[in-house]
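Please check the following for our workbook:

***
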Amino acid sequence: MSVYVQYGSKGRAVRALQEALNEAGYSLDVDGDFGDGTDAAVRDFQSSNELDVDGVVGPDTWSALGVSFDDDDGDGAKDGDDEEGYEEVGRGAEGDAVSFLQETLVAAGYELDVDGIFGRDTERAVRDFQSNHGLDVDGIVGDNTWAALEEFMGDE
C-alpha cells in the first residue's frame, strides 16, 4: 500500500516528508502538519525533479526524495526508523529528529536549548521524562518514549 499525503494531512508520514525535504535542502518545521510551507516545498521539489506538480506526495515523489516505507500498518514509517515512524535517538545523536525531540520536551515543560544535539542536558530531560511517565529510564528515545511524548507534540 502506498502512502499519500497532501495539503491538510497531518501525522507521522508528514513528519517523514518534512524531514526528507529538509535533507533535500528545504527549511521546514518538522511538525507533522502539511500546511502552506510544506506545500510550497513539495511543489518546488516536484518541479525541480520533473514530477507532476500537483502537491500530492505519492510513490513517485517519495522515491525521488529517497524515502521508502515499511507500511504494514499505514503509518508511513521511514526505512531505518522504528515501527512508529520515529527515529530512535540517544546521546551523541544530531539532526532534525533531535531538534524535534527537544522542541517536544520544551512543550512538555523542560528547559532546553533546541540545537539538534543530543547532549547531557537533553539526556537528563529524557531520563526525567521517562521516570515521570513510568518508562524504562535508559536515556534513549525509542518507541515507548516517543509514544509518551506524542501528547506534547504541537498541532499548530
